[in-house]
Here is the input.
Amino acid sequence: MQTLPFGLWASPLTPRQMAASLRLDDVLWDASGRYIVWLEALDGRGSLWCVDTQRNDAPRELTPGDLAVRGRVGYGGGAFTVGHEYVVFAEASSGRLWCQHLKGGEGKPITPAFGAAAAPALAPDGNTVIFVHSYEEQDCLAITSLDGTQWPQQLVRGHDFVMWPCWHPAGNRIAYVAWEHPHMPWDSSTLYLAELGFEGKLPQVRTTRIVAGGEGQSIVQPCFSPDGQYLTYGSDHEGAWQVYLYEVATGINRRLSTGEGEYGQPAWAQGLRSFAWSHDSQRIYALRNERGIRSIEALPIDGSPASTLPNAEGYTWFSQLAASPRNDDLVSLASASTIPPRLVVQNATTTQILRRSSSELVARNQLADVQCVSWAAGTATIHGMLYLPPGYAPGDDGPKPPAVIRIHGGPTDQAVATYSGEVQFFATRGYVVLDVNYRGSTGYGRAYAQSLRYEWGVFDVADAISGAHYLAQENLADASRIIIIGGSAGGYTVLEALCQAPELFRAGICRYGVSNLFALATDTHKFEAHYLDSLVGPLPETATRYRERSPLFHAERINAPMAIFQGSEDRVVPPDQAETIVAALRRRGIPHIYHLFDGEGHGWRRAETIATYYRAIDAFLRQHVVFAGA
Here is the structure.
């Protein structure tokens, strides 16, 4: 039997299969504990599905036809809520909120078609809905009636951004998180508690007080206990996101979590959830992240030791945790490096799979498992997630595989031990893959995340370069065939790394990456309009720094072949960012390919786009890495 060279292995994952998977986005219980509703997306369209746990029947689609479920405030998220046997959701094309009964019948819009809506929260009495609304760059917390008879009213305004609205069980209070420019929510954000008055047809805010947060603190996901005595939230003011309890009657705050790791995540989207209250208000279930691996912990509110839920399936990443309001069941999206995302219901003794994102026809031993690794970059310790080609033993003599250095976006984000189709696409073809959690990544404490302040284009690039050296020094990969790939902020790091270390990388793959920091500062969307103030520095005072760190102004240093991909409708990193760097490569005759995907934004949603993307990078790497290195 002939053994194919690394990079040419017969992978079970074809480009068409890569495009065929569902994307599971969110899941919630109805307040009755009877229904579970989730959001999934296929070929760019989001739809809601429901299962009746009492009847144990087959799942039903709630939103067939032309409706597309998706929150469109900022990066999206927070697309729906469930309660009183109704689901309220944001419709993508119109920006309206719709209401749909879980037992059937047609849905109906309950807000007018202007702006964008996200993060709906249904009042305990089921009569009103609060939600985040954005219109002409103005964000607010709004309120409307569930039956759609009342024109929506502004409930909270005056903040640049609002997130995570939630109701007190008595219906007379709400909590929410807000922050202002130039901060990002993981830099400084504040938790507010508002008392409501009921003089008119819709409630209005009477008084507001600060519960936690402020300058230099990040607050995530407030939620009230079912009995109304407590408000829980995450805060990083002690060095990492931990779980805190606020006693509503006394105003006393106390920390509940005690272990290492982090219990939160950067608020890139609406509706992110890491905590869930037990039905009896006696404990909080929390997702604990340590080195990119998540487990579910039960934190008793009386201060008793925390316990970790059993995990017989071997999942290494959980998200969008929700607890049954009637028993000890939990529902979440669960995955591992070799397990595509699943929708699972679990408790201390059983686990049930409700939905799979893929057919899972590929055996787990045919996929690459994850290893958490660290290495030194000067005096700093850098973290990453390492994947070896299935069956490859690094200690063997003979040829070494090519390697892919993957750079996550954000840059305030983290590569974690979830299933990555892109990782497996490379690894099953015979590539070593290293996800670099460079300085500035979350998951390792606030100090590590904040270390990129004013150093974007410096530390992230240095850590990507040191990751390539780490693979070579550990004899894991062929040092002459290392590829670097990334999207968005990761695409920026790809371009800068190719400029700063032109002889290190054999090729680069850039998706909607930043080439001109000046243009990004003026052209990007509201959410990141001042992001560069902390990543690079304020303008015009640091203009020299912007020029020195913009790949466009030293693109003549790029010698490696490049594959560049861009969405035509990208509002975050507009197409000009890609096209100017493509023009620079063309002028110098540097081998490259460029794909502009019509109708796509900041990432790929359509199946045909995804399949085309993977076909293109496979052909590109065969030409410029695999056969070129033979």
User: Anything to note?
Assistant: The radius of gyration is 24 Å.
